[in-house]
Write a structure and sequence with these properties.
heterotrimer; A alpha/beta (about 500); B mainly alpha (about 350); C mainly alpha (about 325); A: about 500 residues; alpha/beta; Rossmann fold; six-stranded mixed β-sheet; about 30% helix; globular; C: about 325 residues; mainly alpha; about 70% helix
Chain lengths: ~500, ~350, ~325
């Protein structure tokens, strides 16, 4: 048997301008093995895999495939070497059929496309137990179907080195189970598989070995069987799991915000929030947990007045806010800082400096036709100092700042506006530990003042220690609202994946 | 071997502007363009220096028959106004390529008053014509904005279509209702009362233009409106999140953008052509798009590029060049070459080419 | 009946030059680049095609030169937008300015070289390019006149449009090219060479536009050089692309309709319609098509999603 590893990476380094995303990373995978690549958001997992897939070029380092040194300049090089990657954000052509997407770049030989391509795709999908209609257009598909197409695309190419970037984030429990079955089968057939995830349960379930990345460095590689969740978490975050975040006593009482049977639909008519009823009290931190895409974003946007309410009502201090504009809602004291995946998509204007960004919600308050920059400058200086923001200048575009600093600007501005309700989504995403604590302290300070904080986060450990109560969303439904001091991670995990099975209606079968 | 060599280089996007001075780069690209243009002239068997000399002389000479420089400025005025107009829309990432049609719409409405209401007092008439021009261009600019807001209709294609539609309206008016002699296409010359006054050698439009340049700079940089435009250009989501009424801002901005183009149309008919004809826009609306882009939407820089293109056009239109055996089309050829070179040089303001640190064995 | 046949026949002749430009631009846009330089490329094709025809007296060489000239213009555009990632709108407009001026400049010189008279192709070449019925087929009543009595460039134009349609929808390369135009990052990840694909189709599209110019200079004005021969036809072709929903076969029908309006422009006295309305109507219809497609949120009847943006693989 060939003992050469299928993939061996030595000292891979890649930086984007001044940010080092990958710092001398070593990694190897054998054939017939599933390697989990574990790390927090921003630890460099996706960048590393994009290098393997030929999307990015490494600044230095060496790649060996089956013991042979290769250079991967472009995706076609990766394809030729049998590397197939399933990206987190699907790479599909919307207006083409499933079959045309699957065969793209590896079509059957010949000048013309043949009708038989649909049959061929159907055959393959049946062989792997993945059902998809070959003639269906992608834009008519659900998320689960799209991923199926992505997987078929790789299988069709006969790739024997498979990379999956957070494949389970958008899937139902059944779909995940089926995906894992496929992966195991492929492993047994001799494929080498790398799966990127930050869900530890899945790591334990599917992988043979785990390589842990932290801040762009590979910190350890361990056998899954001889490890446990606790150890892996320690490796991933770099310190004890006990974060010892202070949970301040609640000193206020009374209801600030309530939603009653709230339902919301996306532009395409997909129900994103389904019958959500909850309350937010004065001086409490209410956590919202859930798998990515369970309706967290829609909950934030609906409360902030950016999405129309389909059914139900939102009351702020017993007053219906349904017909208020986003600006009226903000002036009433509801403030939202949402940190989306691309960070700058909502909340900040990327090409403007800190000062101009401070003006975003208050520029209309100035009298006359001009904006007043004086107060904004003061505010910018205050938060820069308070949250220790590092910047090359107050007028330098925030686009050029690091992700952590961008987040601080955003949160800082919201806190400075003295809100009664503060909605904050993923405020510590990609931040280092110290900065995270600065943020937790700031939130606790708000809590002391009597502000109701809606805290959306993906890190359950943080939520368990920081929040008073935790609401769990799954497919837009509330699957539970629990007392953070009394619950466990396991309980939350079960609620998130909705073990009771309520959320499986979307299944494509 | 060769591919190996090339694969050692790759392109990296710059995230900060350090390193290359954009002003220096602009200057270098202009020099390069003039050299390439010179080579072209050389290929024609002419002396590039002589030709450039003739162009400069033709654009700036002060002769007995009148100063050429005033004509050059007159040529530049509508370019400055329209390039500022589209800059405002571009800042909002609204790709208004309908400056041509908006100029025409403004010119048509203004011409109505010039042709049929010319008995009004002079200054009142001019004021009404300016307003009519603004309304005409503004409305034509608002239509695609409305559909963009309501149905997300592609504004590039929509504004492009409106250019043709506006142009055929002139043909219609010229052929029929507004024709000077029934049966023959052509519209009468404006009465003196409806013509812009000459101040300091150039029609009074230049004063408006100077004021506009300053006002546009302030508008974009220091007012609430300008702030809203910038935020929407950055991210519509952020703008909505900030509580802006995005649709209202888009409609308002496109009205302003169109209105300025309309005023440029009015100035062109009332100040230069003294009648309405199909050549009133004559591609100026498209040139304005190029100027706005080259100027990076800065009104002051728009003036510089407008003057550069006006110099070429005016300098090449004289008889001196014909004596050298070159037709006025040289102006557009040189303009094309300059554009190509500047576009190519622009690459280096956004990207850099790096050599891989280690050589692949 | 005869009147209608005459009208349609004239409409075909008036519309075909647009068909070349439209097909060329569809090929370009389908691969993800909006090239507003159609007018410029047609001018280049018109001049070089005519020049070659005048001096070599060979139709093949004239068409090859026209194709190469359009391709050369497109090459400038492709280098700027694909390799140097310049703004597509500005690069296209620049090409239009350059191509128009270049062709007119040398057009004037060609007239000067001819002693001030408009140069004319040899009778032999004009004869080859004349409208004439195809043997047998041309004898079929009505249909023969309508479909089989044109000059050979008409058939070339229709042939290219049909070929382009088959190429885009039925071949492997066509599938790849559409993928590049809709989603370059996806195509790239699938191992397709995005840069090469874009270059090939921008150049091909430019060449076809050049042929459209040659149709005008060689055949449309009876083999005599006209200094305004292209005169805005390239811009109409850009409009037709939208009218045809980026489908070359629909473009054939579109050019017929546009051609018809151009023809009845001169024959509408009896209807009392101002001729300018005939100029306007095709654009009004095109605009309506554009608006209706957006109201219906049609995903397929719209410009390819990659148009207007240049692809850079390492963009994050």
């Amino acid at each position: 048997m060939n003992k050469q590893p299928a993939i061996k990476l030595c000292g891979i380094t890649k930086s984007f301008d001044k940010v080092v995303a990958n710092d001398h990373i070593d990694l190897s995978v054998q054939r017939g093995e599933i390697l989990a690549l574990l790390g927090e958001n921003g630890s460099g997992k996706t960048t590393l895999m994009n290098i393997l897939a030929g999307i990015y070029q490494p600044d230095s380092g060496e790649i060996f495939i089956d013991g042979e040194r290769v250079s991967i300049h472009a995706p076609e090089d990766a394809n030729r070497l049998g590397i197939g990657m399933i990206h987190q954000h699907f790479k599909l052509v919307d207006v083409h059929t499933a079959a045309d997407n699957i065969i793209l770049g590896a079509e059957p030989k010949g000048l013309f496309l043949r009708k038989s391509r649909y049959e061929k795709v159907r055959e393959i999908s049946e062989r792997f137990g993945l059902s998809v209609e070959p003639t269906k257009k992608i834009y008519n598909m659900s998320v689960g179907e799209k991923q199926t197409v992505e997987i078929l695309k790789v299988l069709y190419r006969g790739a024997n080195i498979l990379i999956l970037d957070e494949p389970t984030a958008v899937l139902t429990v059944q779909e995940i189970r089926r995906l894992f079955d496929i992966l195991r089968r492929m492993r047994d057939e001799g494929c080498a598989i790398i799966i990127i995830t930050h869900k530890l349960g899945e790591v334990m379930e599917i992988s043979d070995r785990v390589t842990v990345l932290r801040k762009g460095k590979s910190v350890a590689t361990v056998e899954t069987a001889s490890s446990d969740i606790h150890t892996l978490t320690e490796l991933m975050v770099g310190s004890s799991v006990n974060l010892s975040i202070e949970r301040t006593e609640r000193t206020h009482s009374g209801t600030l915000l309530e939603t009653h049977h709230l339902s919301v639909e996306s532009d395409d008519g997909v129900r994103m929030l389904d019958d959500v009823s909850m309350t937010l009290e004065k001086g409490e931190i209410l956590g919202v947990a859930g798998v990515a895409g369970s309706g967290q974003r829609e909950l934030c946007e609906t409360i902030a007045g950016l999405m129309p309410i389909r059914e139900g009502a939102i009351l702020f201090k017993k007053k219906n806010i349904e017909n208020m504009t986003p600006r009226q809602i903000f002036q009433a004291g509801i403030s939202m800082s949402f940190i989306p995946e691309d960070r700058l998509g909502m909340g900040l204007a990327a090409s403007m400096g800190i000062i101009d960004n401070m003006l975003l919600k208050t520029y209309q308050d100035a009298k006359g036709p001009f904006v007043r920059k004086k107060d904004a400058r003061l505010k910018a200086e205050t938060i820069t100092e308070k949250l220790r923001i590092s910047t090359s200048g107050m007028d330098a575009p925030v686009r050029l700042m690091s992700g952590g600093n961008v987040q601080k600007v955003l949160l800082g501005r919201e806190i400075e506006s003295d809100p009664q309700v503060l909605i904050t989504a993923y405020p510590v995403r990609g931040l280092d530990i110290n900065t995270s604590y600065t943020i937790y302290d700031a939130l606790n300070e708000q809590k002391k003042k009597g502000t109701g904080v809606l805290f959306i986060c993906e890190d359950l450990d943080v939520m368990l220690e920081l929040c008073d109560r935790i609401m769990v969303l799954c497919h837009g439904k509330v699957t539970g609202i629990v007392d953070a001091a009394k619950t466990t991670k396991e309980e939350l995990g079960l609620l998130m994946t909705d073990a009771a099975g309520k959320g499986d209606t979307e299944n494509v079968d | 071997m060769l591919t190996d060599f090339f694969s050692r280089f790759h392109i990296v996007k710059k995230t900060n502007s350090a390193g290359t001075n954009p002003l220096l780069l602009s200057f270098l690209s202009l020099v390069a363009a003039l050299i390439i243009g010179g080579l072209f002239i050389l290929c024609l068997g002419k002396n590039p220096f002589a030709v450039y000399g003739v162009i400069i002389e033709g654009a700036f000479k002060i002769a007995r028959t009148g100063a050429y420089v005033f004509k050059t400025i007159g040529y530049a005025i509508p370019l400055v106004i329209t390039s500022i107009a589209v800059s405002i829309a571009f800042k909002m990432k609204f790709w208004n390529i309908g400056a041509e049609g908006q100029m025409i719409a403004g010119a048509i409405l203004a011409s109505y008053f010039a042709l049929f209401q010319s008995q009004m007092p002079h200054w009142l008439l001019l004021l009404v014509m300016v307003l009519a021009g603004a309304v005409g261009g503004g409305l034509l600019g608002t239509i695609p904005a409305f559909f963009k807001c309501k149905f997300d209709t592609n504004e590039t294609l929509f504004t492009l279509m409106l250019n043709y539609i506006a142009l055929s309206v002139i043909t219609y008016l010229k052929d029929g209702p507004w024709s000077e002699t029934p049966g023959f296409p052509g519209i009468a010359k404006f009465a003196d009362n409806a013509r812009l006054d000459i101040v300091g050698g150039v029609h009074i439009g230049w004063i408006f233009t100077v004021l506009l340049v300053v006002a546009a700079f302030i508008y974009m940089r220091y007012t609430k409106h300008g702030y809203e435009i910038s935020v929407i250009g950055d991210s519509i989501n952020t703008a909505r999140y900030a509580g802006m009424n995005v649709n209202r801002v888009i409609l308002r901005t496109m009205f302003i953008s169109g209105a300025l183009c309309g005023i440029a149309g009015m100035i062109q008919v009332s100040g230069i052509e003294h009648t309405l004809g199909e050549s009133v826009a004559g591609g100026r609306g498209f040139t304005a798009i190029i100027i706005a882009w080259l100027s990076r939407l800065n009104p002051f820089v728009c003036v510089l590029f407008s003057m550069l293109f006006a110099t070429l056009q005016q300098g090449c239109s004289g008889s001196a060049l014909l004596k050298l055996g070159l037709s006025p089309y040289v102006a557009d050829i040189l303009q094309g070459i300059i554009l190509f070179v500047i576009l190519a040089f622009d690459f280096f303001t956004q990207y850099k080419i790096v050599c891989r640190g280690r050589k692949n064995a | 009946m005869n009147g209608i046949i005459n009208l349609l026949t004239a409409a075909i002749r008036a519309g075909i030059p647009l068909l070349f430009g439209t097909t060329g631009e569809i090929i370009t846009e389908k691969s993800g680049n909006m090239n507003l330089g159609v007018e410029g490329m047609m001018w280049l094709g018109a001049f070089f095609g005519f020049y070659a025809g005048l001096h070599t007296d060979s139709l093949i060489l004239a068409l090859l030169c026209a194709f190469a000239a359009g391709l050369g213009g497109a090459l400038i555009y492709a280098v700027l937008t694909v390799s140097l990632r310049a703004n597509q709108t500005v690069a296209g407009l620049a090409l239009t300015i350059f191509g128009t001026a270049f062709a007119n400049f040398f057009g004037l010189r060609m007239i000067a070289d001819n002693g001030g008279f408009l140069p004319k192709l040899s009778p032999r070449l004009t004869g080859i390019l004349a409208d004439k019925p195809i043997p047998l087929l041309g004898k079929i009543p009505y249909i023969g006149k309508l479909l089989f009595s044109h000059n050979i460039l008409v058939y070339l134009g229709i042939g290219i449009a049909v070929l382009a349609f088959l190429y885009m929808n039925k071949t492997r390369a066509g599938l790849r090219m559409r993928a590049v135009g809709e989603a370059p990052a996806t195509a790239d990840a699938a191992g397709i060479n995005v840069t090469l694909t874009k270059y090939i189709h921008i150049l091909l599209g430019g060449g076809v536009c050049g042929l459209g110019g040659a149709y005008l200079s060689l055949a449309f004005f009876g083999g005599q050089w006209q200094n305004a021969c292209v005169d805005g036809q390239g811009w109409i072709a850009v409009a037709l692309v939208i009218f045809a929903n980026w489908n070359p076969v629909k473009a054939i029908l579109g050019t017929l309709l546009f051609g018809m309006f151009e023809v009845i422009r001169f024959r509408v006295d009896w209807l009392n319609i101002p001729p300018a309305f005939c100029d306007m109507l095709p654009y009004v219809i095109t605009t309506l098509i554009l608006v209706i497609a957006s109201i219906r949120r049609s995903r397929e009847r719209r410009q390819p999603q990659g148009c207007g943006n240049n692809y850079f693989r390492e963009d994050r």
